[in-house]
Amino acid sequence: MEGPLVQIRPVPRLPPWLRLGTTHHESVRSLQRGLRGRRLHTVCESARCPNLHECFHRGAATFLLLGNLCTRGCGFCSVPKGSPGKREFALDPEEPDNVARMAAEMELRYVVLTSVNRDDLPDGGSAHFAETVRRIRRHLPAARIEVLTPDFQGDMEAVRRVLDAAPDVFNHNVETVPRLYRRVRPQAGYRRSLAVLRYAREYRPDVLVKSGLMAGLGETHAEVEALLAELRAAGVDVVTIGQYLQPSRRNLPVAEYVPPERFEAWREYGLSLGFKLVFSGPLVRSSYQAEVVEHAVREARC
Predict the structure, then answer these.
(1) How many other C-beta atoms can be found within 10 angstroms of the C-beta atom of residue 214?
(2) Structural domain of residue 202, as residue ranges?
(3) 194-239 pLDDT per residue, tens
(4) Residue 4 class from Cβ within 10 Å (0-12 exposed, 13-18 middle, 19+ buried)?
(5) Is 7 part of any domain?
(6) Could you tell me if residue 155 is inside a domain?
(7) How far apart are CA 104 and CA 265, in angstroms?
(8) The pTM is what?
(9) Cα 151 → chain centroid
């Protein structure tokens, strides 16, 4: 006798606007060789970004600082997790200089730095982050630098330490709407992230403040609009909105593939709130085409 049928939730088909056909394997392998030779990581690889082939082919990458193991377990993220105390958690003292030398070798005019969360470190890794910015300034004095930081558990001294290194853009992602934080970012806090962004705006009025979020995790249209309003009230200048894509079976499933017209509606609404730029689209990521975004804002200021 046959057993009862098991109901399996169907996986939504990837819509046409999210299908990428172009690959650049040799460009990817070439850049990866250079990165591994200096013991460096990128969030492009660790987070399985869908734009990796495009960005690596044009010589762009977002450096992942503080190693490749994160102390948090966010539901959306595929960056490897680990327990503090393991040998792999030891900070590489040569990483700041290696990042700077790699950026110079790539002849980058715009350098984007992010990091894993290191809640095990007293300063959250902020001194290491700041030192990397300073090393890049020495090797590439004309380059512009964007930092995409963790929340440092709400330690504003750590935030200030990074800002004192004088990045051109300060980015911290809220990632999702407040209602979904417990499921999506259980070790983070929405109000804490807003406080980090507000502090960055108040402490360094000259720095471009940026944040980003993912769509397709179960949020409503109204919740996204409310989030955008709060980001603008916190002093955020630029916001990025992209489609969440499940990077592995261990991560949260996609609740919805948001159609392009809704991304456009959020863009228009954001601009009506006074954002300098809203980069909104299915394949947008927080550091995707970051140089183009920053340049567009700078040109608009002139």
Answers:
(1) 24
(2) 23-301
(3) 999 999 999 999 999 999 999 999 999 999 999 999 999 999 999 9
(4) exposed
(5) no
(6) yes
(7) 39
(8) 0.93
(9) 12
Q: Based on C-alpha coordinates, what's the Rg of the chain?
A: 19
Per-residue pLDDT reduced to its tens digit, 241-255: 999 999 988 999 999
- Give yes or no for a contact between 70 and 129, defined as CB atoms under 8 angstroms apart: no
Count of domains for the chain: 1
Percentage of the chain modeled with pLDDT above 90: 79
Gap between the Cα atoms of 31 and 28, Å rounded? 5
Beta bridge partners of 113: 63, 147
DSSP calls for 73-106: --TT--S-B--TTSGGGS--TTHHHHHHHHHHHT
CB–CB of 172/151 below 8 Å? yes
For residue 86, tell me if it sits in a domain: yes
**Which CATH number characterizes residue 117's domain?**
3.20.20.70
Name the nearest CA neighbour of 128 among 84, 83, 158, 171.
158
Instruction: Tell me how far CA of residue 230 lies from CA of 2, 51, 182, 227, 235, in angstroms.
Output: 55, 29, 19, 5, 9
- How far is the C-alpha of 253 from the C-alpha of 215, rounded, in Å? 12
The owner of tokens 């609009």 is 225
Closest CA to 58 of 295, 294, 289, 299: 289
On whether residue 46 sits in a domain, the answer given is yes
CA distance 241 to 286: 8
